[in-house]
Amino acid sequence: MIHTKINQEPLSIEKAEKFVALPENGATLTFVGRVRNHHEGNQIKAIDYDCAPKLAQKILEKIANEAQEQSEYKLAIFIEHFQGFLEIGGISIIIAIGSPHRDAAYKANRYIIEEIKKRLPVWKKEYLINGQILWQDGHPLQNNQA
Amino acid sequence: MMIVKIELFGRVRDFFDTNPLILEFAKTASINEVKAKIASLLDNESAKLLENCVLANDEDILLGDSIISRDSELMILPPVSGG
What we know:
A: alpha+beta; B: alpha+beta; 4-stranded mixed β-sheet; two-stranded antiparallel ribbon; 6 strands; 19% helix
């Protein structure tokens, strides 16, 4: 069971954990990414997440399916990434996994966040305390990743 | 005449005063030729940053030798920083 979404509404940890908490899953594991107040020595007050939503949705689905294919268990996978403006502490991403056993949940969750960092067409625009606005450097996309 | 509309994302948004870009080609064009045409509109420093960008449609990232043969809507995607 897989749920993926690029979401312009606030992300819900409760919704994610409810999705993966199935009777057959002895392990549920939720990763929550939040806006922090610093990056590479800069003091940050907010981040605007730019996104190519249709392609991003397709890539989220592909990454989720890859995680499922790599597991020996039937997983419940919930992934939502935020698009828009967030202040410090705001939730930018939730990845929740439900699995019969913990090892598979840890592996899938880690795989998904690392692939998202490399492949998802999302860009962070940082708003600094000093008034500067900076696009964060990132990972160049490859033409075999979509 | 073929029209290729290019939607800009990330830091590439700041390279132009307009979004999307509208490019005209006399006939077919490869993705590399589309990218070169975008670069020709920029100063040297910004054009250099385009080297790390890819062109895509809503379905896929496109290979440099892929051919565009009709009016199209593409996106130019700089290095990503999601999560």
